[in-house]
Specification:
- The complex is a heterodimer of chains A (about 150) and B (about 140).
- In chain A, about 30% of the residues lie in helices and about 20% in strands.
- Chain A has about 150 residues and is α+β, with helices and mostly antiparallel strands.
- Chain A has a single domain, classed as Alpha-Beta Plaits, CATH 3.30.70.20.
- With about 140 residues, chain B is of the alpha+beta class.
- Chain B has a single domain, classed as Alpha-Beta Plaits (2-Layer Sandwich).
- Chain B has a 4-stranded antiparallel β-sheet.
- The longest helix of chain B has 21 residues.
- The termini of chain B are far apart.
- The chains are: A alpha+beta (about 150), B alpha+beta (about 140).
- At the A-B interface, strand 2, strand 3, helix 2, helix 3 and helix 5 of A face helix 1, helix 3 and helix 4 of B.
Chain lengths: ~150, ~140
């Protein structure tokens, strides 16, 4: 259950970044990237099915728990291998590793999702795919955009 | 005190992070990372236990043995050129991740790209997809 991103809704306000930092004591796990003039994209953990960060972790601090990739701070030595093993660059190590924990134990719904004023983030896969389908249907109904 | 097998050491942050007496000193210059193990009399073997490469062993204190030190050149990112990791660490990542995951959908060897550039690439890719979706004509 990762956080799904609908970048066509993202307004680049960086509220998610700030919200994440606020609830995680200053070290956030969301990065909003700006791609030219065309888009802003929040980049955060995908909670990959085959998570390479968990494969690289030798101490068992990073592991898969169902569909989440979770982190046990007690076992982390801060070696930095997970940071290098993440294909998306969304695991950080400053002394110890930190990554998106979906605000487990901090909030019911990830704080970035509740904060986003543009509803670009959600944890609901059905909503994300419904919106994508609706958009495709709209384009088709208008005879496609030129 | 600690004996180091330099051929096994990855140059990671583990031992210097866990040492409770700060006897393991890590120095980074931007191009190199060196790790220096000071002579310690302690019985603790946290660094030995928590070394991912099992490169350390606890040996009896000996004044005549020089303090071990290893130095690594940091590898430059294929895209931006910033130095971000030691070669043995990247080799280790390449050995634990299945070969089919080591290239991304566009054939990029992402392990040799720094984490900052990996995020940028991901953002650019998502943007391309969105722009493509918006401009797609109906059949």
């Amino acid at each position: 259950m990762p956080v799904y991103i609908d970048i066509s809704r993202c307004i680049g306000c960086r509220s998610c970044e700030v919200a994440c930092q606020r609830v995680h004591g200053g070290s956030g796990h969301v990065n909003v990237h700006f791609v030219g003039d065309s888009a802003s994209v929040p980049i955060l953990c995908h909670h990959c099915e085959e998570a390479s960060c968990t494969m690289a972790c030798f101490s068992g601090a990073l592991y898969k728990d169902g569909d989440k990739t979770v982190f046990d701070v007690e076992k982390c030595t801060g070696c930095g291998l997970c940071r290098l093993a993440c294909p998306f660059g969304v695991v950080w190590t400053d002394k110890i590793a930190h990554k998106c924990d979906l605000c487990e134990g901090l909030a019911e719904v990830p704080t970035c999702v509740t904060t986003c004023p543009a509803n670009a983030l959600s944890t609901d896969f059905d909503l994300a795919s419904r919106r994508a389908r609706a958009r495709a249907a709209r384009v088709a109904a208008q005879g496609g955009r030129r | 005190m600690i004996k180091v097998d330099a051929s096994l050491c990855l140059g990671c942050h583990s031992c210097s992070n866990v040492c409770p007496s700060q006897n393991i000193v890590r120095t980074e210059t931007g191009v190199t990372r060196s790790i220096h193990w000071k002579r310690c009399k302690e019985e603790c073997d946290l660094c030995v236990e928590l070394c991912p490469a099992k490169a350390l062993t606890l040996v009896p204190f000996d004044e005549s043995v020089p303090e071990p030190e290893v130095c690594f050149y940091l590898v430059a990112c294929k895209i931006c050129g910033s130095r971000y990791a030691t070669e043995p660490m990247l080799k280790r990542i390449e050995s634990v991740i299945p070969a089919n995951l080591q290239k991304d959908s566009e054939g990029l060897d992402w392990i040799r790209v720094c984490p900052v550039c990996r995020r940028t690439i991901e953002a650019e890719r998502a943007t391309r997809q969105m722009v493509l979706g918006r401009s797609r004509k109906s059949p």
